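Q: Trace token order:
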Amino acid sequence: MKYLGIILLNLSWIAAGFSNARRLKRRCVIANEIIEMCNLIAIELSFSVNETGKILKRLCSEPSLSHLTFLQHLDFEDIHIKTELDEEDNERLSFLFENMGKTDIASMLNLLESFRQNMLLSRKKYEDYYKNHSRLYIAFGIFGSLAVTLVFI
């Protein structure tokens, strides 16, 4: 029974390490999808000049934006977007959606482009953090479980 407990404890430490690494990877995926969303909105605005409500409804059904769950539940009255990204990026994203449709097309395209450039920098930051820390989380999970095993044996 003791060994079964040690094995379960080891698996939980290892799973925690992999879970943290997966969370970091998910940030990179969400940042990529937000950049893709900006590209799609810019294309829609520059070519078809539809209203922003129709554009956002189309984005909800876009399969390449599947991790952006805030698009399905977006309330235009009270926009406060919460994702797995940093709080600064969430505030910028909320600001973008608050100002969508309130200005002319050229201003919205400029706003989208500046947000996209900012998101490219954030994506680079998330990818660098993922490269530097994901292996550490996995290693801490594995070696932490080994340390627990040594303590209990």
In short: The chain is about 75% helix and 0% strand. The chain has a mean pLDDT of 82. Residues 105-152 form the longest helix (48 residues). Helices lie at 2-47, 52-60, 87-99, 105-152.
